[in-house]
Amino acid sequence: MTREYCVAVLGATGAVGTEMVRLLHERKFPISKLRLLASERSAGRWIAFGDDTLPVEVLNAENLRGVDIALGATDAAIAREWAPFLQSQGSVFIDNSSAFRMDPTVPLVVPEVNPEDLEHHLGIVANPNCSTILMVLAVWPLHKVRAVKRLVISTYQAASGAGAAGMIELQQQTQDVLDGRTAKPEVFPHPIAFNLFPHNSSIGEDFYCEEEKKMILETRKMFHADHLPITATCVRVSVLRAHSESLNIEFDAPFPVDEARALLAKAPGVRLVEDWSRNYFPMPNEASDQDDVLVGRIRQDLSCPNALELWLCGDQIRKGAALNAVQIAECLCGRFD
Q1: Is the same domain home to 143 and 123?
Q2: Active-site residue among 121, 130, 234, 313?
Q3: Residues 112, 152 within the same domain
Q4: What confidence tens digit (pLDDT) does each residue in 186-237 have?
Q5: Are residues 53 and 78 in the same domain?
Q6: Cα(42)–Cα(296) distance, rounded to whole angstroms?
Q7: 224 flagged as catalytic
C-alpha cells in the first residue's frame, strides 16, 4: 500500500504557492491531508485542488503539527521563523526562499542534477533560485561528459520573477502606456512595460547584483565545484512569464555541436527546440506553463574553439520554483522518475 503524507504549503496564496497546489494534484502526489497556510489577511480564502476547494488557514504552530512535508513559498524571514519548528517535529521543509540555499548543512537540489545530495538533509532542503534551476538543466548534461571550464550567463527575466504582483504591474503599465498614460512603477523600481533594465536586486561591493551572485554561488554548490569560473548579467524584461537565458559554455577541449545536441535532446527536464530553416528557437510564450526547459540554438562559439553557445527559456514559476520543490518531495518519497 502506498504511503500517504500530510503536506502543508506555506504561502499558499502567492503565485508559487498556488502553482505548488496545482502541481500536487496534477502529479497525483500521495496526500492524506493538505494544509494551505498563509498570513492572517489571506486566511478564509479558498483554493481549488482538483474538483475540491480547500480553505486557507493561518500559518501557525497548531496548523503545522503533524505535517510530514512542508513546501515553502514564503519570503526568507518567514522561512527562517518556521524551519526550526518543522525540524523539531520531524517534518521535512522544502524551502523556495533564499534563507538556506548557501547553508553548508542544507542540500541545494535540482532533482535532475544532484538528487544524491538529499541523502544528507537534516530536515531542510533548499530550492535554488529560478534562473539557476533553468540554467543547470542545460549545463549539467554537458558538464557530466566534459567538465565546464568557464560559464558566461546573460538572463532575460520575466515579470513573474517578482510574483503575481510583478505580472499585474506589467499588464497594468502596458495598458497605461497604450492609453497614453504614464507607467507608474510600484513593484519594480523602473517602468517595466516596453522597457528593460538590469535586475533590481541589491548590488554588492563587487558590483554584482544579488541575482547574479545567486547564479554563481548556487551553481558551484550543486556542481560541487567551489572555484568554477562563472559570470552573470541578469536583466529584467517586459515579458509576462518565463525567463530566457543566453549561455556561453567553455570546456577544456572542443565539444562537438552534434554531440552536445544529442545529449540535450535526451536530457531529463529539457526539450530541444531548433528549426534552423525557420529561425525558430525557444521563446518564453511557448515555455510558459511547461514543465520542460526549452533549449536550442546550440552552436560553436566562433571566438573560442572550446566553447558552445545556446539559448533557453523556462517557466520561472513552474520548473523555476514550484515544480522543482514538488519533484524534491517526490524524490524524498521515492516517486521521482
Answers
A1: no
A2: 130
A3: no
A4: 999 999 999 999 998 899 999 999 999 999 999 999 999 999 999 999 999 9
A5: yes
A6: 41
A7: no
Q: Does residue 81 lie within any of the structural domains?
A: yes
In a domain, 34, yes or no: yes
Q: What strand order describes the sheet that includes 243-251?
A: 196-198, 230-237, 148-157, 243-251, 307-314, 293-300, 270-272
pTM value > 0.85? yes
SS3 240: coil
CATH classification of the domain holding 121: 3.40.50.720
- Options 121, 143, 199, 243, the catalytic residue: 243
C-alpha 170/C-alpha 54 separation (Å) is 30
337's grid cell: 522518475
Check whether residue 188 and residue 201 sit in a common domain.
yes
Residue 111 is assigned to a structural domain of this protein: yes
Question: Residue 27: what residue type?
Answer: R
| Domain match, 101 and 143 both | no
Q: Which residue has the cell 534552423?
A: 276
Domain range enclosing 66: 5-128+321-332
For the chain, where are the alpha helices, taking DSSP H only?
15-26, 61-64, 76-88, 130-143, 163-178, 210-223, 257-265, 284-287, 323-332
Closest CA to 11 of 336, 317, 319: 317
337 inside domain: no
304 in the same domain as 252: yes
Rounded to whole angstroms, how far apart are CA atoms 261 and 196?
Answer: 31
* 8 Å CB contact between 277 and 188: no
116-120-125 Cα angle (round to 5): 85
pLDDT digits (tens, 9 = 90+) for 319-335: 999 999 999 999 999 86
Look up 130 and say whether it is catalytic. Answer: yes
Count of other CB atoms within 10 angstroms of residue 30? 14
Number of folded domains that form the chain: 2
Are 8 and 67 in contact by the 8 Å Cβ rule? The answer is yes
